Amino acid sequence: MTYTILVTGASSGFGLMTARALAEAGHTVYASMRETQGRNAPRVAEIAQWSKEKSLDLRTAELDVQSEASVADAIAHILKDSGRLDVIVHNAGHMVFGPAEAFTPEQMIQQYDVNVLGAQRVNRAALPYLRKQGKGLLVWVGSSSTRGGTPPFLAPYFAAKAAMDALAVSYSTELARWGIETTIMVPGAFTKGTNHFAHSGKPADAHVAAEYENGPYAGVTDQALKGLASLEPADADPAEVAAEIVRVVGLPFGKRPFRVHVDPSQDGAEIVNGVADRMRREMYYAIGLQDLLSPKLNG
């Protein structure tokens, strides 16, 4: 079965890989990104050429997850352009690296705005349609950092991804009776093959950052990054995340897993999430709402 799919943050990394892989699987895919007529114009042209050469249905859409108007316009455009929307891949995100104290509150807000509120804006624009349709799938691209190993100097990003995970967990049961499924994809720390680390933001308070870097935490930045890289197997491929998303989308309704880990470094998130997700299920049984753990087939 083929679907119409929106992938947010699809100008590079997991988003672009996922959009291409889904198109190759036969779906109609909208690779959304900011500034399609500005800095991302070359990417838009590249995607159009790729789609034409391969005779696949990969399209682009202007969508800034930090703008409610932009999100609303993008959803309206997709519905008008293709006549439907079946799957949303919440992938848009941004990483920062540095001592937590050196980030301003405004920088922290920006992390939450992209990683958490961005998904909320997309949901508020798209869910009325999906609920009326009585069927759909939300795929949330999370992070093993929410419950796995947490090396230093990534606090704002880790906090935002943990908030996104919590939001996804709550949404899953609140949407089940509407026939909308949830899968949380949990990638590990892929240090190669994406721009995640290369494009990470820096703390605005350079003075505080310097006190850490020139004081007792001298060398910790290099040690943390090299340590993460050393845990990663040589054959670790971020395209595995895209492949897993394609697999999940292709599964029959009601058979899609709640959570999927793609973590070559095995940082422990799968073990801890297993316990947390079991306790969640037990709670729903205890309060008599266990039907919310599985999507309802409507129609």
Automatic annotation (TrEMBL):
Could you list the residue ranges that cross the membrane? Answer: none
The record's listing under Pfam families reads: adh_short
Q: Which domain of life is it from?
A: Bacteria
Q: Which InterPro entries match?
A: NAD(P)-bd_dom_sf, SDR_fam, SDR_oxidoreductase
This protein is called what? SDR family NAD(P)-dependent oxidoreductase
